[in-house]
User: Which sequence fits this backbone?
């Protein structure tokens, strides 16, 4: 009797064996080209993004009302990161900017006088004698029709904390990234024994967004890197001074 413990098998010759499916070389070539295209697009994005960031910053700097404020400049900090197997690399240099408008007393301001930390705040300024701008109101809402140059000016920010009637406000300019070309010059200017005063020149857009245009230290101007956007687009800006608040 035949052994039924194992199924019977049939041995086929190579000629009888079915062929294994093979990959289509044309499809393989298309896949390779698609992968290469993705790498190229990723590389282009890495090149274009910094350019777009500078262009966007240049537009904000060159096309807003310029406001000059006294400023306290903090120490320069080097921000680092880790790559790959723990290698530490320098990413950028940063300093903190503080102006009198970072502390606002609601007792001497019109508008809303009750805020919570984290809320949006809009600080209104109006022109006074000698073209100096003075803060006169704070609000939780932006102006209905927007401020126009030479009539009013609004800065948008957020409440960081509240100390009785004092609002600690943060805008967009406090964390100032120092360009590589400016680091050494700024450090030397702040370290001089005869250093007395520093000012910041802010560009304020229609929505109240503030961007640092330049730092003025004892008469020396350290300007942000920009692109010639105004000249290309035919745009212009106006200047004004904002009075410090105590």
Assistant:
């Amino acid at each position: 009797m035949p052994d039924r413990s194992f199924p019977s098998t049939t041995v086929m010759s190579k000629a009888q064996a079915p062929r294994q499916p093979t990959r289509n070389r044309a499809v393989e070539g298309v896949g390779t080209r698609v992968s290469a295209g993705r790498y190229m697009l990723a590389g282009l994005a890495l090149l274009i993004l910094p350019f777009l960031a500078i262009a966007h910053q240049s537009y904000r700097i060159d096309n807003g009302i310029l406001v000059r404020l006294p400023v306290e400049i903090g120490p320069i900090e080097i921000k680092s990161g880790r790559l790959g197997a723990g290698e530490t690399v320098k990413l950028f240099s940063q300093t903190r900017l503080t102006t009198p408008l970072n502390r606002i007393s609601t007792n001497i301001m019109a508008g809303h006088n009750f805020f919570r930390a984290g809320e949006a705040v809009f600080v209104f300024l109006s022109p006074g004698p000698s073209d100096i701008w003075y803060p006169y109101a704070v609000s939780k809402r932006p102006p209905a029709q927007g401020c126009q140059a030479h009539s009013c000016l609004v800065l948008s920010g957020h409440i960081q904390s509240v100390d009785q009637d004092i609002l600690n406000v943060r805008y967009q300019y406090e964390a100032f990234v120092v360009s590589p070309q400016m680091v050494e010059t700024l450090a030397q200017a702040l370290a001089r024994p005869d250093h007395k005063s520093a000012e910041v020149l802010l560009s304020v857009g229609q929505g109240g967004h503030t961007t640092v245009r330049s730092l003025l230290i004892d008469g020396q101007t350290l300007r942000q890197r920009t692109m010639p956007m105004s000249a290309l687009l035919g745009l212009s800006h106006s200047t004004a001074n904002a009075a410090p608040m105590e």
Observations:
- Confidence is low (pLDDT under 50) at residues 5-11, 51-61, 227-240.
